[in-house]
Amino acid sequence: MSSGNLSKPGKRRKRSELKTLLTLIMLKLTGPIGRYRLKEMLGLSDQEGLVRLMLADLKNEHLVKTSKAGCELTQKGERHLEEALKRHGIVDIKEMSMKLLKTASESFVFHCRGLSMPVSVTALRDVAVRYGSSGAVLIQYDHGILAVPGVYPNLEEEYPSVSADLHQVLNLSDGDTILVSFSEDKWRALEGGLSMAIHLAGGLS
Question: The domain containing residue 114 runs over which residues?
Answer without folding.
Answer: 89-200
